[in-house]
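Quick one before lunch.
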Amino acid sequence: MQSYIGPDGILEKRKQFFYPCTSHFYRNPPQLVKGSMQYLYGHDGKRYTDFFAGVSVVASGHCNPEIAERTAEQLRTLQHTCTIYLTQPNVDLAERLAKVLPGGLSRTFFVNSGSEANEGALLLARLHTGRRGFLALEQGLHGRTYLTMSVTGLKMWRTDPELAQDSDVTFIPRPYEPGMSADEAGHRSIAALKSVLAAKGDTIAAMIVEPIQGNAGIVTPPDWYFAEVKRLLKQYGVLLIADEIQTGFGRTGRMFAMDRYQVTPDILTMAKALGSGIPIAGFATTDELAASFNRPSASTFGGNPVSCITALAVLDYIEAHHLPERAERLGSLLRAGLEQLAARFPASVSEVRGEGLMLGAELRANDPDAAARLTDDVLEGMLQHGFIIGKNGVDRNVLAFQPPLVITEEDVHGMLEALEAVLGELA
Ligand code: PMP
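Model of the 4'-deoxy-4'-aminopyridoxal-5'-phosphate complex:
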């Protein structure tokens, strides 16, 4: 049997060799050593059912053999070249994406992470429009690079405090507010957008949005919202960038969340689930916009054969196993169960939100700190029961359920039973 340094050994090394910005979930976190589809295994052999998928990444399952086999085969055959040489996996992947992306988005630039994809999308918007300004929704999260951090509204992820002075970015209230109906909050957001556009629409290159805000606590705008946003932006020649980094590739019950809203963005960014654990990301757009991105640009690792073959295998798997439909069906089951728990524990669970297998349950307590502590206690209790669930939200008080889309009904029932027990113990 392999020997492991164990959680304490890992924490010790992190303390010594990582930056202090690195944090972890759980008071007594396990050392994870193996993954298999919806399961993760600790160094002590304990099995956990994963309901967070490494934050929405391994949608096709951990170490999915149908995908991993093709990754390994490519790794043994041709591991790396970049776009200055001709290889087939990246062009095949771009062609394949053109078939599944919302209509007209036929060109993709490949990079390695979500931040880079959004950075590229923002650059493309500036190059195409010749304008510098950006709009973003309050509490959104778009990345760690300077530009993507500047359009990130969530305070927790605005790591550089000086960003507040960046005048190129204007934040619009998000179409969500506790105590307001979805329509009211949507109209408030649209009214703010209208007045910003009227004041300086001709200086704005693009508006970047998450179709469903992930880190901000799984916040879903009303059905009509993005169509109205798109209509207004178009009047002022402002582009719409959909950050589908968490929502893309089936998670919300559609291939892309924007499909739910029947809106085609001008630029769509993707990452996470596209490689189901192998780093790959991209930004896609139309022929017309892509024509403006004509000065030399290249990413060393972007479009490498191993990542692209993996992404092709992921797309094959999503299609063959109907993962968007599965997310819709199991998401309804999970949502119904969470709503029952919210009715059973009204003092602890205030709201259930989301679409497909991107669901959140907001917790409440006497004050925000107590609600965040309760959230941590629930995560801890669920770990004891063998379930890994996530957390997010502006006040870190939202339980997040974003499992691999390969989970089964049995997993959903088992998780709900454990959650009922944990909420009962903590009530
Ligand atoms: N956009 C969204 C919506 C995200 O959730 C994240 C990461 N959580 C990013 C962008 C940044 O992606 P990455 O960490 O791959 O740079």
